[in-house]
Structure formats: structure tokens, C-alpha cells
Design brief:
The chain is of the alpha/beta class. Helices cover 20% and strands 29% of the residues. Helix 5 (170-180) links the parallel strand 11 and strand 12. The N and C termini lie close together (6 Å).
Length: 225
């Protein structure tokens, strides 16, 4: 499994012959100016919630690729009304896709479309595949619900927001990794805006001091599990 960081909370995940895009916010992100949205491949788009900084490039990617949207019922219905194919989910539910099993998890945040309309309740995703298991937290506060995740499956990589202010910060993300029982963390949702700029060295030290590995990829950088 290959995970490519596309900036902010956007990811490309390759599992076998399948490519999954998560929360595409690329074209307005100056830090991601070297990522060509129109060149992205996608079979699925996973959307954690409806905020603009997670959905702005959804329609472009679907129009280019025909990708299926996977999200909560309200978000999938929104895009369904625009003529896009989707698979609706809700918290605690799982579905076996061709690339693996997906579970929609709880997240503590808000969710509305840019016009203010209701975007359902925010969430995250667990991906269980033959190539490894991921937890994508989405935008969330630290929550005790994370303790339930290792009761379901062993997580090989946790993808956690670390920018603070709108989501968990570094200290909470370290605790979250304890709850998830995963010491390998990919940080995301940081540096894009003034409110969420972090000190990279201090962030990595905070994890290392607890015997954990925080990975901060450059935009366009990738890792494999």
C-alpha cells in the first residue's frame, strides 16, 4: 500500500490496482501548487466531512475519473443530486469494497457545505486491506472512541490531524496514538493556514519522547506499508 500526501488533509492511497483519494483540497492550496488535480487517478473518493477544505476538488476529480464517492449519507446524497455515484455510510457501519473493508468511525468536529447547508455528522475511516490497515481520523478532537479501534483490528498506520485550533494538536495526537495502539503516525491537517502552522521539530520530538514515529511528508511525498 502506497500513501501519497497531497497537502492539508488530502491523500492518495494505492491498494493493489485501486486508487483512493481522501478529502481533496488541492487546487486552492498554494502549498500544493505542484500537484496537478487533473492528473490524479481515482477509483474512489473518501470524504470525512463537508467543509470546503476537504471537498473543493471532488467534482473535478469525479468528472475526470468517474470515481465513486464514499461518505456519510448526507454527503453522498448531496453529490447524488448532482448526478455523481456514491456509497452512503454512517458511524460504526462497515462495507466490503473490492479493495478491502471500510468502517466509518466517529469524529468530534462540525460538518457543513460551503453554502451552510447540512453536511451530516463528521467521521473518519478504518481501511482493512490485504496490504495493511489504516486509520484516517479526519478532523477530530481527541475522543475516547479511539480506544475501540484496536478492539476491531490492528492499525499499521494512523493518519492524525496535528495542527491544533480546529482539530487535535500534538499533545492530543500523542495520546490518540496510545488509544489506537499504533506508534506509527502520519501527521496531516497542518501548516495550510496561519491557525494551524506547527513547529515540525517539536512535533516529532513530542512523539519520539514517547517512543513513537511521527512522519511529516513533503507535499507529493509518499510512504509504503
Amino acid at each position: 500500500m502506497k500513501i501519497t500526501y497531497l497537502g492539508h488533509a488530502a491523500l492518495s492511497i494505492e491498494v493493489g490496482e485501486t486508487t483512493i483519494i481522501v478529502d481533496p483540497f488541492i487546487s486552492p492550496n498554494e502549498l500544493a501548487k505542484d500537484i496537478d488535480v487533473n492528473a490524479l487517478k481515482a477509483d474512489y473518493i473518501l470524504i470525512t466531512h463537508a467543509h470546503q477544505d476537504h471537498i473543493v476538488d471532488v467534482e473535478t476529480i469525479v468528472n475526470n475519473t468517474g470515481a465513486k464517492i464514499v461518505s456519510n449519507y448526507e454527503i453522498v446524497t448531496h453529490y447524488g443530486n448532482l448526478g455523481f455515484e456514491g456509497h452512503p455510510m454512517n458511524h460504526g457501519g462497515s462495507w466490503q469494497f473490492d479493495f478491502g473493508r471500510v468502517t466509518y468511525t466517529n469524529a468530534i468536529h462540525t460538518s457543513s457545505f460551503p453554502d451552510g447547508s447540512y453536511g451530516g455528522q463528521p467521521g473518519g475511516f478504518i481501511l482493512e486491506t490485504a496490504e495493511g490497515n489504516l486509520y484516517i481520523a479526519g478532523d477530530t478532537a481527541l475522543t475516547m472512541d479511539m480506544k475501540l479501534i484496536p478492539m476491531q483490528c490492528k492499525i499499521d498506520l494512523a493518519i492524525l490531524p496535528i495542527g491544533d485550533n480546529f482539530t487535535m494538536g500534538i499533545e492530543s495526537a500523542v495520546i490518540a496514538s496510545d488509544f489506537i495502539e499504533c506508534n506509527k503516525v502520519l501527521g496531516y491537517h497542518y501548516d495550510t493556514f496561519g491557525y494551524i502552522i506547527i513547529d515540525h521539530d517539536e512535533a516529532q520530538k513530542a512523539f519520539a519522547n514517547k517512543g513513537k514515529n511521527l512522519i511529516l511528508l513533503p507535499i507529493g511525498g509518499a510512504l509504503s506499508i
